[in-house]
Backbone:
């Protein structure tokens, strides 16, 4: 499988990767990083995780003027796509979809021979995460449970390019967290391969769930209101330590409080309050796992003025106290270090 991305005018190679298309569970993930900078007018940063049948691309781009990127995959592949930026004009051969990207959305597509052009708007930070799987790799992680997505799987068998869902769907908190874990994985060697593959399976579950359990009220929310709800979610994502009150959030997005509460629940499957708690608790978990904060420091970094309130929220969310979680994390990390020596 050959994967390449080329910037037009002037023609500049950005990505050029060649891998086998077999599923080899013992193969090790390798990592490469690309950084291109041209007088602050052009910045490209791309981190790649590569093994047989699998490529993960975590790419950020910035251009002072509009640019077009051509992206190609020359073999059958299934792509789990996560878009963090809006208004990128997209044209894909053999696939009919939305013309412009929407921020914080995801989808899965199959293609027998992928070629697409992406027109990137000027002075805008672009970020996407693409998990590219060979057909054989995909078969192994899905266990051929085709009933979960019967139409999509039939298209794969017929070699007909298609999306799993007709439209890109908004990130759920679970998808946001797992993509964060993939982006920030620091494990090495065999453990890294095991960890990343487990996270890909977890992401696939969340993507299938998002499609299978699509909120019925979503159809009753018009495009303008939906974009305002995405804006509300973005505000919370960007600063869940100092979140606005519901009335303040309502004013910030110019949507009345009733529609905000009802629409947020319909689109994202959770209330505004529960979403904030989830973001804070996941950040606390990350702080403890990376050993970068005490309980009181984590409480402050997650937006709690009172440590006891933080501890109570943590216990309610995870089922045990922050202190106990830290102890268990230390034990698990000690076990993993010992396991890596035995591998």
Residues:
């Amino acid at each position: 499988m050959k994967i390449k991305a080329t910037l037009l005018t002037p023609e500049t190679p950005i990505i050029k990767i060649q891998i086998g298309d077999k599923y080899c569970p013992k193969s090790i993930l390798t990592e490469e990083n690309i950084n291109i900078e041209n007088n602050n007018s052009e910045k490209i940063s791309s981190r790649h995780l590569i093994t047989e049948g699998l490529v993960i691309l975590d790419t950020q781009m910035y251009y002072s003027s509009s640019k077009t990127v051509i992206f190609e995959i020359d073999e059958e592949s299934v792509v789990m796509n996560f878009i963090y930026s809006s208004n990128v004009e997209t044209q894909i051969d053999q696939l009919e979809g939305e013309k412009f990207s929407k921020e914080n959305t995801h989808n899965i597509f199959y293609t027998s021979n992928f070629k697409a052009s992406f027109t990137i708007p000027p002075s805008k930070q672009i970020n996407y995460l693409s998990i590219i799987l060979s057909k054989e790799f995909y078969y192994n992680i899905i266990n051929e449970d085709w009933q979960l997505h019967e139409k999509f799987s039939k298209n794969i068998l017929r070699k007909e390019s298609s999306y799993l869902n007709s439209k890109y769907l908004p990130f759920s908190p679970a998808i946001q967290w797992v993509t964060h874990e993939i982006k920030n994985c620091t494990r090495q060697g065999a453990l890294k391969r095991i960890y990343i593959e487990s996270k890909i399976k977890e992401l696939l579950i969340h993507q299938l769930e998002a499609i299978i359990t699509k909120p019925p009220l979503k159809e009753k929310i018009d495009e303008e209101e939906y974009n305002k709800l995405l804006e509300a979610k973005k505000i919370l994502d960007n600063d869940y330590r100092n979140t606005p009150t519901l009335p303040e959030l309502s004013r910030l997005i110019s949507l009345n409080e009733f529609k905000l509460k009802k629409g947020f629940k319909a689109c994202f499957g959770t209330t505004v309050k529960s979403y904030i708690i989830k973001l804070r608790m996941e950040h606390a978990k990350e702080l403890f796992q990376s050993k970068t904060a005490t309980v009181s420091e984590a409480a402050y970094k997650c937006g709690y003025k009172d440590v006891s309130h933080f501890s109570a929220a943590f216990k309610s969310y995870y089922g045990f106290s922050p202190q106990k979680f830290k102890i268990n994390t230390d034990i698990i990390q000690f076990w993993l270090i010992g396991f890596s020596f035995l591998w």
User: Anything to note?
Assistant: The chain has a mean pLDDT of 85.
